[in-house]
Amino acid sequence: MICRVKIFLLLLALISTATFAQKMSREEAIHAALKNNDRLMAEELHLEQARQLKKAQVDIGKFSATLMKGQYNTIQQDNNLTLTQNIPFPSTLVAQSKLGKEQIVGAERNLALARNNLVYEVKTAYELLLYYRALHQLLLGQDSLFTDFARAAAVRYKTGEGTLLEKTTAESQLLEIKNQLQQNETDITITQMRLQVLIKSTKLIDATEPFTRRTLPTGSLTNNPTLQYELQQTIISRQMLRVERNKFLPDLELGYFNQTLIGFQNTAGTEEFYDKNKRFQGFMVGVAFPLWFAPQAARTKAAYYQQQAAQKKVAYTQALINQEYEQALQELKKNEISLAFYEQSALQNAVLILSQALKSFRAGEIGYIEYLQSLRTATGIKLNYLVALQQHNLTIIKIESLTASY
Q1: DSSP letter string over 274-323?
Q2: Phi-psi map region of 283: left, alpha, beta (phi>0 left; psi -120 to 50 alpha)
Q3: CA 13 to chain centre
Q4: Could you give the number of structural domains in the chain?
Q5: Sheet containing 63-70: which strands, arranged edge to edge?
Q6: Using CB atoms within 10 A as the burial measure, which of 114, 117, 197, 261 is most buried?
Q7: Of 112, 32, 54, which Cα lies nearest the Cα of 236?
Q8: Is residue 71 part of a domain?
């Protein structure tokens, strides 16, 4: 009794959940995810971060202002104001500016990759939901058949026409179907919760589209977001190497001073007294370079190895993507052969087996064992078709992701 109450409460909760779920088409789910997903918003913020950091690439350093006061010329209290500015070599500034631009492109490619991955996750979850919904309908049909079978077996047992084994077998099969229905309901809820997180909705998401065969998209692997991202990383690493090499060049130093020299000064052959209101000025130009080049040489070498690693990663990524694409195409061929088998003959045979078995069992031409075997055969064909259709559609979604075909 307690077990039945728990089952009833579970079904009631699932029905309530389905009633208040937000219904969406596949495209609506994708659009909502691209608009609301927090992980995607984080990548958009990283793009804004890169744009701001680009402005910091052309950094000429801090301006220096130094005031000196004291008896540095005579016993009088003189003062000296010195303004200096160290500026990286112009080619270094240009290289750093280009690096900032490439890093912005890298952030844009990373955002495109995140979008593609999000679309793939939404499509996959939505397709699974369609499969579980179709499976639910199939299980409901089985539940109806086995309910009739169990009812008929119970009547036959009471009238002495059937056996206890037949009655028990029918009831066990019916309970097994009901157990599968409960598991399927749980799978539906779990998938709805996954979509809810991806879309960032306050409600569970339910599908509105039928579970049908998807078509192969037209696209190219050259548009693969992962490959495009890794290619951009090689450009960024190459530009970083240029920046490090330019840092071997000296910094430029510009300066200006303004000071007093209180006392007598010989001008035009005569001694003339200059007080604190008379000021002397001039400018300074110089270069600054390190006496120890080993640290910068090490940084340049590290940037070189980073560039080589990025190139190797691109080669590996491209080979991996090509392999995944070819594997997906082979899987698609296999799935299409399987679907053709079910759609051209097996499904029609399943309908025929089911109808003939039902007629023969009711007419007493076959026993419950033959009838049960026929039910299992027919429903097994339909179940295998749903699995084949699901695998076909998931393969299509994989190809869409590899070619960035939304």
Answers
A1: E-TT-EEEEEEEEEE--S--HHHHHHHHHHHHHHHHHHHHHHHHHHHHHH
A2: beta
A3: 32
A4: 1
A5: 63-70, 78-87, 251-260, 279-288
A6: 114
A7: 54
A8: no
Q: Judging by beta carbons within 10 Å of its beta carbon (0-12, 13-18, 19+), is residue 56 exposed, middle or buried?
A: exposed
Q: Is residue 69 situated within a structural domain?
A: no
**Residue 66 corresponds to which tokens in the numbers above?**
């130094």
Mark 201-229 as b/e (b = at least 16 C-beta within 10 Å). Answer: beebbbbebebeebeeeebeeeebbbbbb
Tokens representing 212?
């049908």
> Using CA atoms, how far apart are residues 69 and 84, in angstroms rounded to an integer?
17
* pLDDT tens for each residue of 200-236: 999 999 999 999 999 988 888 988 999 999 999 999 9
DSSP label of 221? G
Range of the structural domain that residue 114 is part of: 2-58+77-262+274-402
Q: What pLDDT is stored for residue 217 in this prediction?
A: 82
Residue from 211, 212, 207, 210 nearest 24 by CA: 207
Report the alpha-carbon distance of residue 162 to residue 6 in Å, rounded. Answer: 33
CATH for 191: 1.20.1600.10
Residues 281-318: pLDDT tens digits? 999 999 988 888 898 899 999 999 999 999 999 999 99
CA-wise closest residue to 299 among 218, 346, 244, 229: 244
Contact present, 227 and 318 (Cβ < 8 Å):
yes
∠ CA 357-172-4, nearest 5°, is 130
DSSP 8-state symbol, 346 = I
64 found inside a domain: no
Phi first, then psi: give them for residue 357, nearest 5 degrees: -65, -40
Per the domain annotation, does 228 fall within a domain?
yes
Residue 19, pLDDT score: 52
